[in-house]
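Quick one - inputs below.
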Amino acid sequence: MTRSQTEAEYLARLVPSSVAATLGRRTVLKGALGAGSLVGLSGLLAACGGDSGDGGGAGSTTVSLGSNESGTTFADQRQAMADAFLEATGTTVAINAVDHNTFQENINTYLQGNPDDVFSWFAGFRMRFFAEQGLIGEISDVWPLEGIPDSFQEASTGNDGGQYFVPQSYYPWAVFHRKSMFDEGGYSQPTTLDELVSLCDQMQADGLVPIAFGDSDGWPAMGTFDMLNMRINGFDYHIALMAGEESWESSEVKSVFEQWRDLLPYHQPDALGRTWQEAAQTLQQRQAGLYILGTFVNEQFPDDEDDLDFFTFPEIDSAIGAAAIDAPIDGFCMAADPDNAEGAKEFLAYLASPEAAAAAATTGLPFIAANTDADTSEYSAIQQKSVELVGEAENIAQFLDRDTRPDFASTVIIPAFQQFIGNPDDIGGLTKSIQEQKVSIFGS
Amino acid sequence: MSTTATAPPASTTRSADQRRHKPLRSGHVVLQAFLILVAIGWLFPLGWAVLNSFRDYAYTSVNGYVSMGGWTLDNYIEAWERGEFGRSFLNSAIITVPAVLLTLFLASCTAFVLSRFSYRFNLTLLGVFLAANLLPPQSLLVPVFQAYNEIPLPPWLSSSESMLGSFLGLILINVAFQMGFCTFVLSNYMKTLPFEIYESAQIDGASVFRQFWQLTMPLVRPALAALAVLQTTWIYNEFFWATVLIQDFDKLPVTSSLNNLRGQFFTDYNLLSAGSVLVALPVLIVFFLLQKQFVSGLTLGSTKG
Amino acid sequence: MAYETPGGAGGTVRGGRGTRAGGRARPLHRLTGADRAVVAAMVVVPTLFVVLLVWLPALASVLLSFTSWNGIGGLDEIEWIGVTNYVDVATIYPPFWPAVQHNAIWLVFLFLGPTVLGVFLAVLLDKEVRGSRFYQTALYMPVVLSLALIGFVWQLIYSRDQGLLNAALGTQIDWYGDPGVNLWAVLVATGWRHTGYIMLLYLAGLKGVDHSLREAAAVDGSGEVSTFFRIILPVMRPINLIVIVVVVIESLRAFDLVWVINRGRNGLELIAALVTSNVVGEASRIGFGSAMATIMLLISSVFIAIYLRVVLREER
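Output:
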């Protein structure tokens, strides 16, 4: 299992000390592109939309971008970056935007079919998996990228040592809450499990749902599992479990489910029919007190993001601490056989640059750049805090469905976690079933 | 064929007149009450969607849905723009129209031969066609997908340069699936045509194709019309193949694109309602304008001309 | 749903009307060479469509079910593993048996609920009641809507936090999410469409029943209920069989509705959805998914055979 070895290694090395270090030498915004140039280009892009490839258009060239964000704040950011790229280079970016979940579910067919020149994807196991299958184009010649920390380069590297990914942004998972509600209720951020439980009790007494929860799409619950597993069994165990090296029937995993079961009564009931957006709405509408999610939760707080705050999931075992977090890196890959390889590489290098980050920032929306040279002076409190959280973290995992085999995550883990949420009492049967399927899929 | 499930209005009136003299009026009151209740119950879900599509989310999220007020047209404007309905309606047309025409043409050809010429394998062939229509599409997915991916197409035909993700691929799979039913209906219909119509043509020495095109086809027009309406509805509604074979959001037909929009629309149910109504509108218009053809298409064959 | 099970049963009801007008078919060998070529083309081209796009893929799916393949890379990466996939599906794949059970519940529900209701409504509306046309229109209007769309329309009613049902009942039931109730909620939505469809098929069949039969029964002094069970139902036997097959096939192929709701998970497991989630998406357990697809194929072929026997009987 050399793959998992590298996986564990790269994750262990993913301590973004460089992120923390470079915060000091925050560079002044260079070459920020005005928002004025953004107007009027969308029509032009739409006109080119149906035509991937070079199309023989006189003079200008086109790079197509397959984007897994449609109608969200991230989609606006990508549009802004595409517009800025056109401004800077004269190359048009045709964005093919697809709903996030749909894009992920179709990634296999998409990559085998006719992917766009550049497409959005994730660092980690999921990228390596497709790189190994020859479905992602190697872009080692784009590297090294100035301002991108070594740990992020490591996360962009395939099993053969070449680079297949450029990181653009990342977001930590944490426990979110409203500052104003904490002030009103006299709550304070917990640092240990006991404090978390008593906070939940207090919120319950105040008529609140302590923890908002929505798992209709199946993945949000993975965040909770990751946190608990890293707090109870430690980061190394978590990564080994993800790599298929540990048994899901072990007492370690069982204790995670037991802890989770004890916390479930504090979660919003009937989570399985609710999307994360709907769950976020309950925090937004002050019906729930806490919410475990990535920083993208602020998308549901368009008007009062300032009221949003977070803390890292509290310590459970003092010997293990609370220094490991999930902080998935988002970025871009190149198709294995792009129509416009040159343009694609140029665009990829641009996407990882501080200029792209600046263009994204012009939308006024949160974005934590992977590039340490990016200007952070405009970052909101949440963004600043995210940078700090990731900087302080000793270990960073990518997220369950990015750290393990995709077929295992989607056909075994999602149904299993949903079953657990519906019926948290049969932990023995659940872990046995997961383990049997794990053996069938991983082959050991 | 001309007999449809709908009762002729004239006879309805007549029997209503007769009924007036019958003593069992209370029974009819109960019957009418029951039918009215059922009909209202059946119209309600779509009516509810239509109602809420005209309401402001800010209003309903404060006052709840069981309220009145907050009327607006904005949901439609926003749904149309965000859902890019203009483009997806066009995509639906690009897929549906050729698929229906090709299905009907190929089915007519086969039906003509099956009904005109006796051949040892006639029944087997009809079985092969008809059974194909009933197979679960999921069971064909992987091979169709892999095969499509291997078939190159010129760029002018498919921007993806392969059958996968092309309109053509989607059209062909729809044709293959729908042909069985159409062939079956048409061959039954053609068998009811009097054999004599071909006799003079044969004496004139008209070719088989001329007999097909100039004699048979005009005579089966009612059946073709009915099938056209039915197939248009079905192919427009097709969800599975479009979802798995088209990767480019710009090329998704309406029915599948709604699912793609789910994430964006999810928390705003009034917007979702407006999107749903927009998707339903074309088939509802077809249904109300061409109800007779739709009904006779579904039941075609059981009344045999 | 585009793969509507065709209900049109060719001339299966013989009610003494419409004798076959002509249609004595001609033997092929009397044709000239050119005509023979045209005839051959008219059959071969459509047949190629069906064979290449439907039957060959179906066969290939059966073959793939004995392999392990992630769907990526060439066919040479396919590994033959015998019946392992079938064993795994039956023994260690938790959603499989619930899915089988749900398909069965789907079938029983569709049959006892919407099908019986549809037949009942057809019998009522066949009697030329006042406003029959309006009632029929209302009842089969949902038939023109896609099941994917029906999932959205009913979401407005079922949503836990914003839906009409909870607001009206004052409950907090998660109709689409609670695995204890969501199957039933979905069945009601699918029944909304199915009832009109069955009513339509049956009504057309009833129109074909010879009126003299009923009059004779009326002379005998039979009540309406007993006329239906003693006279109409037996005469309608071919239509009944077709309705049964339609219900079975539709139950087996049910997919769109649960897919748009939650991808067929958490109480809404159905075989078709399991096949799809295993072979599309990041998962790509092609062999494993194909094994379930083959199971679907086998079950459906039994009923397809019954269907063919019924509708093709007259052709013999």
